[in-house]
Amino acid sequence: MAIDFYAALLSEISAPINAALQAQGVQDSVQLAPPSREGQGDLACPCHKYAKALHKAPQMIASDLGQSLKDLPQVASAEAVAGFLNIRLNWPEIAREVIEWAEKDDGALGQSNALAGQKVMIEYSSPNTNKPQHLGHCRNNILGCTVARLMAAAGAEVTRVNLVNDRGIHICKSMVAYKKFADGQTPESWGKKGDHMVGDLYVKFEQALVAEYKDRYPEEPRPSKDDFFNTESKLGAEAHEMLRAWEQGDPEVRALWKMMNGWCESGFAETYARMGVQFDRIDHESETYLLGKDLVQEGLDRGIFHKAANGAVVYDLSRMGLEGEKAVLRADGTSVYTTQDLGTATRRYAQCNFDQMIYVVGNEQDRHFQVLFQILAELRPELAGRLFHLSYGMVELPTGKMKSREGKVVDADDLMDDLHETALAKCKELWPDLDPVELDRRAEALGLSGLKYFLLKFAPTTTFMFDAEASIKPEGETGVYCQYAYARGKSILRKLEASNQAEAVKAATPDYSALDQEQARALMSALLMFPRDVAQAARDLKPSMVTKSVFEISKRFAAFYNHPECRVIGAEPAVAAARAALVRATSRVIGGALDLLGITALEEM
Q1: What is the pLDDT of residues 145-190, one digit of tens each?
Q2: Shortest CA distance to 454 belongs to which of 530, 551, 527?
Q3: Rounded CA gap, 445 and 8, in Å?
């Protein structure tokens, strides 16, 4: 089952209030929500909006409505304060139901029908096969994969897709570098993963190009390096010739391309597996870049596009209130990115009939998608409103922006290795006698937890600086902190099971009135809110709402188990049984939250 216990509770409490209002001729339904200030109860109902209809002061309205709740067992008190009806829940009365729900119902883990019936396709990752994935790809991969999990938890039918950019001039640069600098080596003889070897060659090409550029133009004035590459550079001419030969199907060039792309994609697969990133289908640009040509011709025939003076087919941006033109086909008839994207989108819709297509791409492509969606809406009106760009900010380093061509990047594999080694050193301090295999497993879980949580805790639109050291700290808003909360709960239960009171606690009927402390109430309240946070995160495409929710549960859990009046072991059996049930329920919800974030929950830390 997947029940939203909080929604059901609000419905039960709202019913007598709504009945009291309707008896006085007010048909609006009340909207109960947590009060804006602490200490004002668990729920609040603003009564000011009823003053005109009822010809009463809000304070009097609140007082009258409070009377409707006096016989409701779920409510401990209802007090009129400054025109608000502040409601305190009867936690001893509802604790058993809350805990049983959190222990057994999948709704407590964020499963819902919030997006039931929706067919969603999510495109993320989309790496180039000329270099390994880097920190920026980590954000894309983890953001896209997590959004997919959240939407699936909310009931959507989700298809995860990767469009590998495996063709183009950037790919040919690495291919030229292989012929010039690799001397026929393979990743094995090079001593690196395939994607890292290809990335090394890409950097070598850039270094050779810079040397050629500076040799030709040692002083200012000089043309831009891109202009030099396209018009004067011998290396540039070789790369462009390589691209022409590829497009003409030259067997030797295609064989080299297939070999190097195979190396790169094999390396990507290892990175994805380690990161816990999955896809339902993988498309390749080499298979899709021609798809849009027929659409371009159709748009030309319908007057959506026109031919520019240079022969290129373009879209007049004034049709959407912008200046300039957008090329959709080059003058020589070759495809541009937009050509491919037009064809790929229409093919995917024909294949999957999606309700929503989400592109997880950095914010430097905001304008591209704005224009693409407008063109698609004109070409295929049925796609209007179905396409969404999940734009995210850049991840920066202390040294500034990453530049793949210059080798100034943090490779995803290297980053995961560094986080693993840092975590492993800490694990060895904590468990010096632990089996090395288990030490390694825990270190990997902690390192990846730090990476994923740090990249997800910021709203997607936020640009931020990645702090590797802070990401795996056991205190503060980190994945490791939440993992520790889960492990601490499991530890408490293991100690209880091994104690001399274990049998007495098992035999006792839990005394849920023992959960009326502030710490227990706050914890149960956070558990109730978690499913709503997951559903909202799925609707808004904001995993940061889930990271904040599980961190809040973990914080309140720590306040509970650290408080002397909330101890489990050593308490009276009936009291210990109730508190142990809350510990089990909380551990389950934290574990479910970590799973939604792609983080491994550790039984011991």
Answers
A1: 999 999 999 999 999 999 999 999 999 999 999 999 999 999 999 9
A2: 551
A3: 36
Alpha-carbon span 539 to 136, nearest angstrom: 24
Q: Using 50, 70 and 90 to split pLDDT, how confident is the model at 408?
A: low
| Class at the top of the CATH hierarchy for domain 5-89 | alpha beta
Written as six digits, the tokens of 559 are 């306040």
| Cα–Cα distance for residue pair 604/93, rounded to 1 Å | 33
DSSP string covering 574-605, please? HHHHHHHHHHHHHHHHHHHHHHHTT-PPPS--
Rounded distance between C-alpha atoms, residue 437 and residue 422, angstroms: 16
Question: Can you list the alpha helix ranges (DSSP code H) found in 276-411?
Answer: 285-288, 293-301, 337-352, 366-379
> Using alpha carbons only, how large is the chain's radius of gyration in Å?
30
For tokens 């509802």, name the residue.
Answer: 94
Please give the structure tokens belonging to residue 289.
Answer: 């870049």
Looking at domain 119-292+335-396, its CATH class is: alpha beta
Please name the residue that has the structure tokens 């050629």. Answer: 212
Would you list the DSSP string of 411-443? BHHHHHHHHHHHHHHHHHHH-TTS-HHHHHHHH
List of residues 6+ apart from 499 with CB closer than 8 A: 569
Q: What is the Cα–Cα distance from 237 to 231, expressed in whole angstroms? A: 8
pLDDT of residue 303 exceeding 90, the answer is yes
The DSSP 8-state label assigned to residue 433 in this structure reads T
Closest CA to 357 of 112, 125, 118, 117: 118
pTM attached to this predicted model = 0.93
Pairing of β 84-89 and β 43-46 = antiparallel
Domain boundaries, the chain: 5-89, 119-292+335-396, 412-596
* Residue 73: cis peptide before it, omega within 30 degrees of 0: no
Nearest one of 495, 583, 590 to 99, comparing CA atoms: 583
Q: Report the relative pairing of strands 43-46 and 387-392 from DSSP bridges.
A: unpaired
Which residue in this structure is represented by tokens 């409510």?
75
Q: In whole angstroms, what is the distance from residue 240 CA to residue 248 CA?
A: 12
* Helix and strand numbers, DSSP H then E, in the chain: 23, 13
Axis-axis angle for helices 169-177, 234-247 (nearest 10): 110
Per DSSP, the three-state class of 412 is helix
Task: Check: CB of residue 88 under 8 Å from CB of residue 128.
Answer: no
**Six token digits for residue 15:** 């019913």
User: For the packed helices 251-275 and 234-247, what is the interaxial angle rounded to 10 degrees?
Assistant: 90
Cα 308 from chain centre: 41
CATH architecture of 412-596: Orthogonal Bundle (1.10)
Q: Which residues contact 575 (CB under 8 A, 6 or more apart)?
A: 511, 514
